[in-house]
Design brief:
By secondary structure, the protein is α/β, with parallel strands linked by helices. It has one domain (4-244): P-loop containing nucleotide triphosphate hydrolases (Rossmann fold, 3-Layer(aba) Sandwich). It contains ten helices and ten strands. The chain has helices at residues 19-29, 37-51, 55-60, 62-74, 102-112, 115-134, 146-150, 164-177, 187-199, 221-234; strands spanning 4-5, 8-12, 33-36, 77-79, 88-90, 93-94, 139-143, 156-161, 212-215, 238-239. The chain has a five-stranded parallel beta sheet, with helices on both faces. α1 crosses α10 and α2 packs across α5 (102-112). The longest helix has 20 residues, at 115-134. The N and C termini lie close together (9 Å). The structure holds 2'-deoxycytidine-5'-monophosphate. 2'-deoxycytidine-5'-monophosphate binds at residues 15, 37-38, 41-42, 108-109, 112, 143-145, 193, 197. The site of 2'-deoxycytidine-5'-monophosphate has 13 residues, from α2, α5 and α9.
Length: 251
């Protein structure tokens, strides 16, 4: 039997630290579900952009705020939690590519700072996690507030970090690979989003007290996954054997 995850692994950290690659890779390796909560904030932001409502008004007037929140609450978001095919649909349309574009990336911090938006998406996220656990499946959840707010009793909480230079380089490579020319995701833009995400009043980005910090600057993906799998094994979250003779035999 292969090594299989039980319970929840929370993967938090700023942009460009390798959260998606890591969380998805871990879910694939350990036969678990995968939830990208950033994709939910991005799809909600796309709904707001498509509505034509002003984000400036949402931040400054009660009516503007309520209109934006109503759009998010009315949007139908569907996420597949299959790490081999993590699709995102907005009102039935596959928006996986569009939510990574510059328009959404530029607006997502403003939408994700709204408390009512967060409350709505957090309850959706908890529902998805509960569904996976009820099926007897483990789940790897990535975001900014997973270990602190969404699943504070997660069996393993990881806070990924990487140097500013490495993070900007990864984001540039992603943009180039996706053909996004002139995308503003340089070091300055990452710093701007970090500041917004860390200083907002609602669930700011910060490591949970019991999170394990993993610096990915000098590790390749297999190195990061080996580290996380080892931490999950230490916490008895793996059933089946992990590697010949050394892994746990609990299943
Ligand atoms: O991980 P990402 O870059 O796709 O996330 C997009 C934005 O969503 C990011 O600027 C912060 C926000 N976000 C959040 O506030 N809480 C989460 N759990 C996930 C993402």
């Amino acid at each position: 039997m292969d090594a299989t995850l039980r319970g929840v692994v929370a993967v938090d950290g700023p942009s460009g630290t390798g959260k998606s690659t890591t969380a998805r890779g871990l879910a694939m390796r350990l036969d678990a579900r995968y939830l990208d909560t950033g994709a939910m904030y991005r799809a909600a932001t796309l709904a707001v952009l498509r509505s034509g409502l002003s984000l400036d008004l949402a931040a400054t007037t009660a009516e503007g705020h309520d209109d934006v929140v109503a759009v998010v609450l009315g949007a139908r978001l569907e996420l597949s939690t299959d790490p081999a095919e993590p699709r995102v649909r907005l009102d039935g349309e596959d928006v996986g590519a569009e939510i990574r574009g510059t328009a959404v990336t530029g607006a997502v911090s403003a939408v994700s700072a709204l408390t009512a938006v967060r409350a709505h998406l957090v309850s959706e996220q908890r529902r998805i996690v509960a569904e996976a656990l009820a099926d007897g499946t483990g789940i790897v959840v990535e975001g900014r507030d997973i270990g602190t707010v969404v699943v504070p009793d997660a069996g393993l909480k990881i806070f990924l970090t990487a140097s500013a230079l490495v993070r900007a380089g990864r984001r540039d490579a992603e943009n180039t690979a996706a053909g996004r020319v002139g995308a503003p995701d340089t070091q300055a833009d990452l710093a701007r989003r970090d500041t917004l995400d860390s200083s907002r009043a609602a669930s700011p980005l910060r490591p949970a007290e019991d999170a394990v910090e993993v610096d990915t600057s000098t590790l390749d993906i297999d190195g990061v996954l080996d580290r996380l799998q080892g931490l999950a094994e230490d916490r008895d979250m793996i059933v089946g054997f992990a590697d010949a003779g050394v892994g746990s035999h609990k299943g």
